[in-house]
Amino acid sequence: MQPWQPLLDWWFGAPAAPGEQAARQNGLWFGYRPEQDAEARERFGGWVEQALRGELHWATEPHGWLAELICLDQLTRMIHRGTPAAFAGDARAQALLDVGLRQDWDRQLSDLERVFCYLVLEHAEDLLLQERAVAAFAELLARQAEADRAAFQSFHDYAEAHRRVIARFGRFPHRNAILGRPSSGAERSFLAEPGSSF
Questions:
Q1: What are phi and psi of 57, to 5 degrees?
Q2: pLDDT digits (tens, 9 = 90+) for 146-195
Q3: Considering Cα of 24, then 25, then 31, then 32, what sign does the dihedral take?
Q4: pLDDT band at 93 (very low <50, low <70, confident <90, very high)
Q5: What 8-state DSSP symbol labels residue 156?
Q6: d(C-alpha 40, C-alpha 38), whole Å
């Protein structure tokens, strides 16, 4: 067994049709439960810290690359939720993503696995990367059978929503308080709107 397999097994759960699998895992991926964050910290926190230091070295093939991206882009947000460290892996994740994309590693993964590559782009405070995220999720959506389209439509819709925020502000205003950044008047008005935070 590859060292990263327990992480992928936990993250994706048992194999199933993509729509069914996404519905089952959605609470882990996008919900917040303290016990999930605690489990991520207990089981995988050491790997996350290694990844943040550039010491994990799993990106030698597609699934190791994916697992390292999940450590840098997803588990940081769980383990360090509500602190600046939640975003500490973003730059390294973007650089690592480029390594794999140049080798077409994303195209050797399942469509659901590819979602967690392209979320690295969606998390970037950079409009060009946001445009790439929207295009990537549009491509995934176009590939889906009818039974799986709802999940991938949701992924695409969230990518569009993230892009709109970056196009408007150049950054995610909901990160400002965590990162100690002052918010503009326009950002404060935006943050008062429902659904303004991701």
A1: 60, 40
A2: 999 999 999 999 999 999 999 999 999 999 999 999 999 999 999 999 88
A3: positive
A4: very high
A5: H
A6: 5
Task: Look at residue 198 and tell me if it is in a domain.
Answer: no
Tokens 């990844």, residue? 51
Q: Which residue has the tokens 């990263």?
A: 4
Residue 45: give its domain's CATH number: 1.25.40.10
Alpha-carbon distance of 42 to 51, in angstroms, equals 16
Tokens of 147: 């039974």
Among 76, 96, 83, 170, smallest CA distance to 130 is for 170
Q: Who contacts 76 (Cβ-Cβ below 8 Å, separation ≥6)?
A: 48, 52, 85, 86, 87, 88, 89
* Segments forming the whole domain that contains residue 11: 5-191
Scan for tokens 């759960």, then name that residue: 13
Amino acid at 5: Q
DSSP state of 82: T
